[in-house]
Amino acid sequence: MADIDKTAKVVNKSGTLKMDDAVANTKTQKDINGKPMNRRGNARRGRGRDNDNGAPKEFDSVTINIDRVSRTVKGGRRMRFKALVVIGNHKNKVGIGVAKGSDVTSAVQKATTKAKKSMIEFNMDGETICHEVETRATGADVLMKPAAPGTGIIAGGVVRSIIGLTGIKNLISKSLGSTNKVNIAYAVIEGLKQQVPRDQWVGNQKTEQKESK
Length: 213
What we know:
The chain has helices spanning 21-25, 104-117, 157-163, 181-193, 202-212; strands at 60-73, 76-88, 93-101, 120-121, 133-137, 140-146, 153-154, 171-177.
C-alpha cells in the first residue's frame, strides 16, 4: 500500500491548492495567445487623473447643496436632483453652477461643467476684498466687508464654502433676507465681481493726477 502524504496543504475556497510564494514568483502570466503579460503596476490605473507632468489640479470643486425636486406630469411625479457646485483655484478665480439630473452624479457633473464655463476673475487687496459691498440676488442680500490680517473668514454656510476656494483669508460677511442657497451664491459672486482696486477709486484717481502735475 502506497504511503499517503499526510502533510498539511493550503486549499483555496474554490478547492484548488494554493501556491507557495517561492513557486508563485517563478510563474508568468500569459495571454490567450500564450505570450507573457507584462504588469505595469498602477500606471494604467491612475491614467487621466493627473496631468502628464504630475502637477496637481488647477481648480478644486465643492458640492454645496443637493436638492430633490419633482415635477408633475401626466403619468405622475417626475423626481430629479438639483446640485449647486462651486469651483475655484484658491486665488482670484471662482465660479458656481446649478444643474439638474436624473441622479446625483449626473447633476453634479452638469453643475461642475456650468461652473467652469461661468468662472469670474475678481480683484483682491492682499488677502481680503478691496472694499465693502452689499449685493442682492432675487430675495437674498449679502453684505461683505474687508477684515484685518488674522481675522479669518467670518461667514456662514454658502458664503464660507465659496470664499474658501478663493485666496481670501480675512473677511466679515452677513447674509440677510432669503436663505435660499442658490440666491446667496449668486449674490456672493456678484459682490466679488464688483470689487474695484484701491488705485482705481475716484478719490485716489484725483490724488494721483494732482501728484503727477
